[in-house]
Amino acid sequence: MYHxxxxxxxxxxxxxxxxxxIELCGYAVDSRLVERGSLFFALFGEKVDGHLxxxxxxxxxxxxxxxxxxxxxxxxGLLLLRVPRVLLALQELARLxxxxxxxxxxxxxxSVGKTTTKGFVVTLLEGSYRVSxxxxxxxxxxxxxxSILNSSGDEELLVLEMGMxxxxxxxxxxxxxxxxxxxxxxxxxxxxxxxxxxEQIAHEKAQLFSSPxxxxxxxxxxxxxxxxxRGMGSCDKLGYSLSNAASDYYVERNETSLVVVDKExxxxxxxxxxxxxxxxxxxxxxxxxARHYGVEWEAIGQQIPMLSLPPGRLxxxxxxxxxxxxxxxxxxxxxxxxxxxxxxxxxKQGKRYAVLGDMLxxxxxxxSHHKEVGRVxxxxxxxxxxxxxxxxxxxxxxxxxxxTVHCYEDKETMTRxxxxxxxxxxxxxxxxxxxCKMETVVEAIMDLVDRR
Length: 452
Prior knowledge:
nine-stranded mixed sheet, single chain, alpha/beta, six-stranded mixed sheet
C-alpha cells in the first residue's frame, strides 16, 4: 500500500497544500470498498457520479477526497483536493508513484486470457522475487492506476494486466506504467464492434511495446497478426508457440509431462493442474517472462503445481454427481470455442450439456460468430441450451440435425428446463458475456441440485 500524506499527494498533483496534513493508507473509487484512512476519488462516470457518495465514503473511513474543481456540495468532514479532471489525477498519481519506486513492470495484454496469464506470471516469479499484481481483472483506465496505488510498495516486480475496449487505451496505460517486459498473449475479434478489423485490434494491442523503456516484447507466434505485433516498437522480441519449432519457446506435450524446447535444449516440466489445453499457451508465455528474469527451470517446475485459474474461468464445480464447468467470466468466439473443446478432457458418465448466453460487442460479426459457436458445439456436446439473441443464431445451426437444442429468452425458465434433464454423471458448461450474468445460472444449478 502506498502510504503517504495528503500534502504529498497535493504536491504531486500541483495543488495547494490542504489545511491539515494526514496520512493516507488506501485509495478507492467505489465508496463500498473504502477502508479506514483512504483517499476517495469522486469519479464522474456514465452511470454514477462519485460526488454523490462522499458521505458514504466518509462513513466507511475515508479521510480525504479528490473532487472536481467545480464541486460545490458538502465535504462531510473530508479534506478535499479539487482538480480539473478526477480520472486524470488518479492516473497521474499512479504514474508518479511508480516513477518514485523504481520497481520493474511486467505488462500483459491480449484479447483473451489476460487475467489467467497474469496469474501464471506471478506464480512463476514469486518463488524468486517479491511480486505483486493488479487485483482481479483491474486492467483499465481506472483499475490499473488503483492497482498501482494499492500495491505493497516494496515489490521488485509488478505484474499489470492492461486491457482495452476502445482505440488509444493501451497507449494511455503504457504512459502510466511503462513495462520493462511486455507480453501480448492473444489477438481475437473481442470488442470488434469498436474496431474496423482484427488487424486494428492487433495494432492497438501492440501499443504495449510503444515505450522506449520496454526492454523485451514477448509474442504468441500462433495468434493472428503475430508478425504485425512483432513489428511494433523498438524493443527486442521473442516468440512462443505450442507447435512451431521456429519459435524461441515451444512445447512438446506427452501424457506425463510438458517439455519446453528453447535454444538451450529440452526442459521437462510437470503437467499443469489445469483444465483446457489453451492454458498451456498462457503458461508458455509466463515461462518466457520467468526465464527472462533468470528463474531456473527447476524453480519453474516447482511452481507449476501451484498454478490456478481465476474464478469463473473453467472452474470445475460438482453437486449431487453433476459436474458444472463455470466459465462465466466473459465470452467471445475464441474463448467459447476453447471452452467447448475443453469438455473432452473432463471425465463423465452421462451427457455433455452447454448452456450458452450471448457474446456481446461484436457489431456486424454478431450473427456469424454465434453460428460458428453453434457449429463447434455440435461436436462437443450432446445438448445445447441457448439464451438471448445470439442463442437463436446458435440454435439455427442445430435445427435441421438429429441433435437436441433449446432456445430461451428467460434464464430462469432455461435453468428449470435444464435441471429437468440433467442427472448425476452429466457435465454442464455455462458461458456467456458479462452482460448476460450467466453466473446466476451456475448459482441456480447448484441450488436446485442441492434441493433435490
